[in-house]
């Protein structure tokens, strides 16, 4: 539910910026697009986390899960999978915390773009 609300908020933000775009508001349009893409990325990372945790619960080895993921070394996808496997091995679940951290970082980047006129 929280993720649906976040996605709806981002779409509303995107629409409001694009509907009222005036010359000189390129930063606002870029921020809206960046917010939409960031929300999608965070949602995808959350899905990877949940899929990796489920595969672990179904008895697949950590290495097999990593191998079939196709995640690039050092990528956010790899980090989400590693976090899921680490959590699964300790019996914890930090998927919502990971999602919230991702969205906070994304919001901070969008605000920086709006206020500074450039992406960090």
From TrEMBL:
What are the record keywords, sorted? Signal
The secretion signal range is 1-21
Q: What is the name attached to this protein's record? A: Uncharacterized protein
Q: Which organism is it from?
A: Pseudomonas syringae pv. tomato (strain ATCC BAA-871 / DC3000)
């Amino acid at each position: 539910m929280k993720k649906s609300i976040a996605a709806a908020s981002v779409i509303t933000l995107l629409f409001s910026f694009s509907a009222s775009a005036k010359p000189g508001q390129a930063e606002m349009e870029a921020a809206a697009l960046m917010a939409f893409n960031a929300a999608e990325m965070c949602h995808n990372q959350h899905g990877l986390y949940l899929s990796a945790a489920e595969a672990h619960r179904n008895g697949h080895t950590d290495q097999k899960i990593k191998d079939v993921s196709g995640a690039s070394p050092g990528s956010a996808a790899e980090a989400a999978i590693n976090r899921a496997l680490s959590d699964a091995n300790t019996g914890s679940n930090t998927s919502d915390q990971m999602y919230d951290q991702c969205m906070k970082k994304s919001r901070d980047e969008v605000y920086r773009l709006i206020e500074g006129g450039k992406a960090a």
